[in-house]
Amino acid sequence: MSAGFVPPAYPHDRLASLAVTAAAHDGGVVDLSVGTPHDPPPPQVVAALAGSRAEQAYPPSIGSLALRRSASAWLDRRLGVQVEPSSIAACIGTKELVVGAPHWLRLRDPSRDTVLYPAVSYPSYAMGATLAGCRAVAVPLDERWRLDLDAVADDDVARALCVWSNTPGNPAGGLDDLGALAVWGRRHQVTVLSDECYVEYTWDGPRRSVLQAGVEGVIAVHSLSKRSNMAGLRAGFYAGDPELVTYLAEVRKHAGFMVPGPVQAAAAAALDDDAHVDVQADRYRRRLERGRQILADAFGLDVAPPGGGFYLWVAVPGGDSWAFAARLADEAGCLVAPGDFYGRHGAGHVRLALVVPEERLELVARRLGVGPPVPPPPSAPPLSGERSGSSSTVSSKRTGEPCS
Q1: What is the rounded CA–CA span in Å between residue 337 and residue 316?
Q2: Alpha-carbon span 13 to 17, nearest angstrom
Q3: Full-prediction pTM beyond 0.90?
Q4: Cα(48)–Cα(295) distance, integer angstroms
Q5: Where are the domains of the chain?
Q6: How many Å apart are CA 132 and CA 193, to the nearest integer?
Q7: Rounded CA gap, 395 and 150, in Å?
Q8: Residue 17, burial from CB neighbour count under 10 angstroms (0-12, 13-18, 19+)
Q9: What is d(CA 120, CA 70) in angstroms, rounded to the nearest whole number?
Q10: Which residues face 192 on adjacent strands?
Q11: Which of 93, 129, 333, 373 would be 234's cystine partner, CB 3.0–4.6 Å?
Q12: Cα of 34 vs its chain's centroid, Å
């Protein structure tokens, strides 16, 4: 038998030995390696899940009209864009859509075989290309972790089926100029796929969506996992170009992709309420600031605040991310993600997901010999204050390689 595709080791499975080390501490491991929510979803979501009476019937693959109307109203209310419910469809979380979209888009246009994605990013963008039989081509990033589309080779542009953006970005919190990205995609007839799952946690400037530049040729992907602490329910949606949304929805209908009916009801309830998201945003702001303070006091590290999201992207002393991850596991009982999980250009960094409750962060601080939090002075700027007045653009500078 000839050798076929062999799945690589799943990134976080590689942390098993460090997890054992961290768990040996009194109080156990403090897991900052995965961005899984630790706070509860709002009560109305749980009530909708339990009381939907949608268990016995097959749910609509495209999403119930109630869910799509709630998503449409949320896009208008929070992002200032008008998208009809007919141009919105449900997905089972968003990871399955991220991984599956290149396959379905290539069925639509077999003449193109290349998926462009950020050089330091969530690994599922590249894996989706691989599973679709496409070329995965990393787009270099500038010094602020933004796409540098001018650095993409002409041949790769000509062969590009789609380009991924993730804003705010995972792991580094960068903010792409999504308007410029939409223009670039239309000019080169490349479908723009914008993963906006952290949009509610944008710290530097207003919330950004590619849909603010119009829907032609673009799809925005949104998740309830981060916004409403619903990762276990697997609820998300995609919106944008009516032709693309209809095509994807029809393919997915044939493939049997359906968000369970009770989950659709819970997702609509979550999208209808913004107050719980604002509370969650305040939690993440506090945790990010405390994480920065702990790293400064324990290691002398000056970690820049992210433009958005709830991750700290840390350039490690000496440049050995695995050695620093091992040190945190040994000294602090803390598990973090080495930067090469996010592409080879992420080497020399670690990512900390500031998702755990404050008492778990304080446990890490005590293990490292760091004192209690120091309250900021009354005039202290917000988290994004160090970057106030700056703009986010798709860089025209040819760096050739992303900052690392």
Answers
A1: 12
A2: 9
A3: yes
A4: 41
A5: 13-40+276-370, 43-271
A6: 16
A7: 7
A8: exposed
A9: 33
A10: 163, 218
A11: 93
A12: 11
Round to whole Å and give the CA distance between 95 and 257.
13
CA distance 143 to 387: 14
Q: Which fold has domain 43-271?
A: Aspartate Aminotransferase; domain 2 (3.40.640)
- Portion of the chain with pLDDT greater than 70, in percent: 92
* Residue in 58, 169, 59, 155 with CA at minimum distance from that of residue 116: 155
Q: Does domain 13-40+276-370 match CATH 3.90.1150.10?
A: yes
* pLDDT tens-place string over residues 72-119: 999 999 999 999 999 999 999 999 999 999 999 999 999 999 999 999
Mean pLDDT of 192-201: 98
Enumerate residues 6+ apart whose C-beta is below 8 A from 44: 269, 270, 273
Q: How far apart are CA 351 and CA 35, in angstroms?
A: 10
Within 10 angstroms of residue 6's Cβ, the number of other Cβ atoms is 5
Strand order in the sheet with 191-195: 88-91, 236-240, 218-223, 191-195, 160-166, 114-118, 135-139
Instruction: Assign 395 a pLDDT band (cuts: 50, 70, 90).
Output: very low
d(CA 321, CA 81): 40
